Amino acid sequence: MTYEEFKKELRWNVQNMETARGKTIRLLERHMVCGDPMAVHIMNIMNRCMYGREQIMIREDMLCALWMRGKREYIQHWLIRPLYERYGQEGWQSILPEISAGLTEDDEEEDIVLSGENLSYAVCRRHMIVRPVNYERCRQELGNAIYRKIGDVALVLHLLTSEKTGSSLTIQVSRGMVLPWKLTEDQLITEAMMNTCRKMPPRLFLGDDRRKFFPYEEGILLPEEEGRQTWISPWNHREGQRGYLLTTTARIHGAVAFFYPGVKAILAEKLGGDYYVVFPSVHEAILHPVDCTGVQEIRSSVQHINAVYGEGEMLSDRIFCYHKNRRLLQLL
After folding, report:
1. What are phi and psi of 309, to 5 degrees?
2. Which of 47, 55, 65 is nearest to 11 (CA)?
3. Could you please report the per-residue DSSP string of 125-169?
4. Most CB atoms within 10 A, among 29, 64, 215, 243?
5. Maximum Cα–Cα distance across the chain
6. DSSP string of 93-111?
7. Which InterPro entries would you find in this protein's record (predicted)?
8. How many CB atoms lie under 10 A from the CB of residue 96?
9. Cβ contacts of 153 within 8 Å, gap of 6 or more
10. Three-class secondary structure of residue 24 per DSSP
11. Where are the domains of the chain?
12. CB-CB contact of 28 with 46 (8 Å)
């Protein structure tokens, strides 16, 4: 079966599943342009989740399902290329049960019990999140881990095994654990990043705003969220010198928010161009427009913070610079 034939048969099989009743099933193809209002709506949702904004061409073939429960909208998606590769080796029996299970899920989180039968991709996929750590300090523990390295920051794949109000429990995922899933590490990190963003959206505040608790609806960054954005004045050199604090709604391991898809470009728009970013702890990132301060001044500040707080929650003592026009993150 060719790849194009597989896509059509996959959609037909899923549309005829019992679990697909009452749900909208759409095939979103790479670079597609579509006049179907429902397909466009799903495309916009996926682009906001993956890239932080609407109206970007779909970059990978996806099968998507959309449904409503009460007033809430739920969406599931599957990248088609990995499914096709699995089909060639294992047939439909490896794919369709997983998709059917995904169509029965909603956003009510349940604890995941770590047993052999529960370590399938279908069970674990919505529990995957990313945690940031300092690569050099954690190099030994990362020997069998799945991670994406950016400078001296490692974004490590974890499973959220328990999530209660105000606390969570995670375990680091090993390569052996995901070997049967037959997905690349990059695919797993990308999906986990989307989960993390959904569970813990990014929030942006003024650098001198040091409240311990921020209302959930303040500091809104992503365009589809409703709430109050922090008023940014990038032309104000004093404000830019103090910097801007980026974290998540959870405020725990909040530095990961900087690496969410689309966030770096959104920040460049808000800050009016290129900016420096540092990570004084795993819980936050600090941003400075390049016109408002110098590298040496930032470096001295980061070294002071690391000396005060120690290595326990340190993420990086390096300075990064994001170049707006080139969409490039550079380690200085």
Report:
1. -95, -15
2. 65
3. GGGEEEEEEETTTTTTTTTTB-EEEETTEEEEEEEEEEEETTEEE
4. 243
5. 62
6. GGTHHHHHHHTT--S---P
7. DUF5688
8. 16
9. 132, 133, 134, 135, 255, 279, 315, 316
10. strand
11. 1-105, 109-199, 202-331
12. yes
Any bridge partners for residue 63, and if so which? 27, 78
> Residue for token digits 């370590």?
119
As a whole number, the mean pLDDT across the chain is 80
Residue type, 168: S
Q: Which two tokens stand for residue 65?
A: 């399902």
CB 294 within 8 A of CB 284: no
Given a contact cutoff of 8 angstroms between Cβ atoms, the answer to whether 159 and 127 are in contact is yes
d(CA 123, CA 98): 9
Please tell me the total number of residues recorded for the chain in this structure.
332
Q: Where are the beta strands (DSSP E) in 165-307?
A: 167-172, 202-206, 244-248, 275-281, 284-289
Written as six digits, the tokens of 181 are: 């899933």
Burial track 244-278 (b if 16+ CB lie within 10 A, e otherwise): bbbbbbbeebbbbbbbbbbbbebbbebbeebbbbb
Helix (H) or strand (E) holding 305: helix 295-309
Helix (H) or strand (E) holding 284: strand 284-289
| CA–CA gap between residue 321 and residue 230 (Å, rounded) | 22
Single-letter amino acid code for the residue at 186: D
Closest to 331 in 3D by CA, of 323, 320, 322: 320
271-327 per-position pLDDT tens digit:
989 999 999 888 889 999 988 877 888 877 777 666 665 666 788 888 999 999 989
Task: Give every CB contact of residue 232 below 8 A, 6+ residues apart in sequence.
Answer: 204, 239, 244, 270, 271
Asked whether 331 and 151 are in contact (CB, 8 A), the reply is yes
pLDDT tens figures, 77-132: 788 888 888 888 888 887 888 788 778 755 444 554 444 445 678 778 888 899 99
pTM, two decimal places: 0.66
pLDDT for residue 54: 47
* Nearest in space to 29 (alpha carbons), one of 46, 17, 14, 13: 46
Token digits of residue 109? 């989180």
243: number of Cβ within 10 Å = 23
